[in-house]
Design a protein that fits this description.
42% helix, single chain, Beta-Lactamase, alpha+beta, 487 residues, 4 domains, five-stranded antiparallel β-sheet, 25% strand
Length: 487
């Protein structure tokens, strides 16, 4: 080192340390001796970590070879006085073969700024801590929003969407990412133009029908609106929650329709009974033949009313939550013989033949005997009503081993069922029309059949074409004697 450079090295107000590849001090200037309060003898060959506390680089050679930095800066404390601080810069040295040969450390005393630095450090740590708390609270908020089954819409002052949850996608059928940033009226125009929004009915709800874009179907949703209030009591944003009540509305509509249908079905026979009774009482001059005719009508209408009430009671009992099956093991052969005897008069009246095909050795069925009897009775009765005179109704059953199920097939030679009516035949009070008139009956027989099948965890399907008759296929899984069926 020449004299001028040595003079500068010793008189500059910065401590310099030259380290060997093992982080040991091999050269230093006079300012370094004063700064570290050590003699030449004590300072030489000391490791840099013996001078500084909390220096986070354990091995300078490994650090620079790994990171390939040209300079690194740190602000460690001094071991001679923890309240004394230093700002250090470390520059690596490499020889002509690019091998690490040591480093130069420059140290500047920042003791006068240490308190300010410490305050800044504490403020930074407090800021980081507070930011982490806010992030945690935000994550909890998003987690709650995401797990709400209702759809959630957060709107700004101009009704632009700024937050949605995944449940909303199921209701509207649009990717939530596509909704973000759009105006409410783009995808939710029914809600935007509703009275709820126009009049800002906060803390109230309104039932609105919207379109599910994916399913192309209408959904009834209960929309609730509330303001998002700041801690100062200012209204900042608007929150909408959307609850899909389509199923509830359908059930409510079905109940209304059911009550209307029951009223209509009861009114018709009652009106006939009342009308002919009044006539019999008022007109004493009626002949015996006329009286018998009117009494026969009254009797038939009474029977019709009785059948309707019995079917309503049967359906109500089966669909009741307290209903329990009486499971037993019984022979299908003997039950089908009983069924044939039951339907004999109806079959003879229309000159029909009921052919029953049942394989030999079919195992006993384990189920509710009375319910299975009613199920098959209703299906055969339905076939008799639909089938042309002097033809055959075919009934067959097999036991399918692969899923341990009994398959019942009833095929008639009636007018057939149109495709649109196949979807409706199990609805309460629905009756099929032939080319002349509506097929007689209460319109509840197939509803009862479907309920019994579902209670047995089975399936029922219909195959039919107009003019080609209809085939009903029922699958009833084999039960267990000890089993108590769920409703």
């Amino acid at each position: 080192m020449n004299l001028s450079l040595k003079f500068l090295f010793d008189n500059i107000d910065v401590s310099f340390l030259v380290l060997d590849p093992y982080d040991r001090i091999i050269k230093f200037n006079q300012i370094a001796q004063k700064y570290f309060l050590l003699s030449k003898k004590d300072l030489r060959h000391k490791k840099i970590h013996e001078l500084f506390s909390n220096l986070d680089i354990e091995n300078l050679k490994d650090f620079f070879l790994k990171n390939r930095l040209k300079i690194v800066k740190r602000t460690p404390g001094l071991r001679r006085n923890e309240k004394t601080g230093a700002s250090i810069s470390i520059v690596p040295l490499f020889d002509e073969k690019n091998a690490y040969s040591g480093s130069i450390v420059s140290c500047t005393d920042i003791s006068d700024k240490l308190e300010l630095i410490n305050q800044g450090t504490k403020a930074r740590e407090e800021f980081i801590k507070r930011t982490a708390q806010i992030a945690e609270e935000r994550d909890k908020f998003y987690l709650v929003i995401e797990n709400i089954s209702d759809g959630v819409l957060l709107l700004d002052y101009d009704y632009n969407i700024i937050l949605v949850n995944s449940s909303l996608e199921k209701i509207i059928g649009i990717d939530t990412k596509k909704l973000m940033g759009t105006h409410l009226k783009i995808y939710f125009k029914e809600i935007y133009y509703s009275e709820l929004i126009r009049k800002k009915y906060y803390f109230q709800s309104e039932i609105i029908e919207i379109t599910n874009q994916k399913e192309k179907s209408r959904k009834a949703v209960s929309v609730y609106m509330a303001p998002l209030i700041t801690q100062r009591g200012e209204s900042m944003n608007t929150v909408l929650t959307l609850r899909d009540i389509t199923r509830e509305k359908q059930i409510d509509d079905m109940k209304t329709q059911f009550v209307s249908n029951v009223s209509h079905e009861l009114r018709t026979p009652l009106a006939s009974i009342k009308g002919f009774t009044v006539t019999l009482l008022a007109r004493k001059e009626l002949s015996e033949q006329q009286k018998n005719k009117f009494l026969t009508i009254i009797n038939n209408e009474s029977d019709r009313l009785t059948r309707l009430v019995e079917d309503l009671l049967s359906l109500s009992r089966i669909e009741s939550s307290s209903f329990r099956f009486q499971i037993s093991e019984f022979s299908l052969v003997s039950m089908l013989e009983e069924l044939k005897q039951e339907m004999e008069k109806l079959l003879m009246k229309k000159k029909l033949r009921l052919d029953i095909i049942i394989p030999a050795g079919i195992p006993p069925l384990i189920a509710d005997r009375d319910m299975i009897f009613q199920l098959l009775l209703n299906l055969i009765n339905n076939a008799i009503k639909l089938t042309k005179e002097s033809t055959v109704i075919l009934f067959s059953t097999i036991f399918r081993k692969k899923d341990k199920s009994f398959i019942f097939t009833i095929k008639d030679q009636g007018p057939g069922i149109s495709r649109e009516n196949i979807e409706k035949i199990f609805d309460k009070f629905f009756r099929v029309e032939d080319s002349v008139h509506i097929i007689p009956g209460t319109g509840l027989g197939l509803s009862i059949v479907k309920s019994i099948v579902e209670k047995h965890r089975g399936e029922i399907n219909v195959r039919s074409r107009l003019g080609k008759g209809a085939t009903f296929i029922v699958r009833i899984p084999q039960g267990r004697i000890s089993e108590e069926e769920e409703t």
